[in-house]
Amino acid sequence: MSEANEKSGAELMVDLIISLDGYASGEGWPGWWGLEGPEYLAWLEEEGKKDFTTLMGANTYRVMAGLSQQAVDDSAAFSEDEGASLGGLADMRKVVFSSTLQEPLAWPHCELIRGDAVEAVRGMKRTRTGTLSTLGSLSLSRSLLKAGLVDRFRLVIFPVITGRTGSERIYDGYPDVALELVNSRTFDGRAQLLEYIPTVLEDPPPARK
């Protein structure tokens, strides 16, 4: 049995937004591929009010802290819904894994953890409550999944193919994983949420007779 299936104090969720062909972003494309709508942004705002602790690496911290502060300083740079979603990140509990960042971190409600992120999250699952949720941080998410620590795997798939411009291939380096669908939703008639319980596979399953 993987650790994702063992009883623990906190649940760990890998949370990703992707293009249909599995990229996290595309060169020249706007954020959310320009397809964020009011339903999706309202859902993001509601998710931000839940008992989540957000996990991220140093690169994601730098990008998201900058965007969150920009939403506060220059409201005209974003739509009202975008600004609320980005600005709300400042109030969430956040854990940043980094050996290069220095305390104190400028973004509010951030805890800096050095050392092995997988072992740190393993301990957090035992000692904390609520939901631990990744934000971006593709290598961190991959490592946590490989370690069998992930309880839920949640994707929001945007209806674009970025075969020429796509960057940050999400699934490279992943193990084989079986996924049990437990929730789905469509936002604004275009973006699709898919939520799974993952099981990391040592070998492919046998062929059905």
TrEMBL record:
Signal peptide from the UniProt entry: none
InterPro entries hit by this protein: DHFR-like_dom_sf, RibDG_C, Riboflavin_Biosynth_HTPR
GO terms, biological process: riboflavin biosynthetic process
All copies of domain Bacterial bifunctional deaminase-reductase C-terminal, residue ranges: 12-191
GO molecular function: 5-amino-6-(5-phosphoribosylamino)uracil reductase activity
Pfam families, per the entry: RibD_C
Protein's name in the database: Dihydrofolate reductase family protein
Organism: Paenarthrobacter ureafaciens
Organismal lineage: Bacteria, Bacillati, Actinomycetota, Actinomycetes, Micrococcales
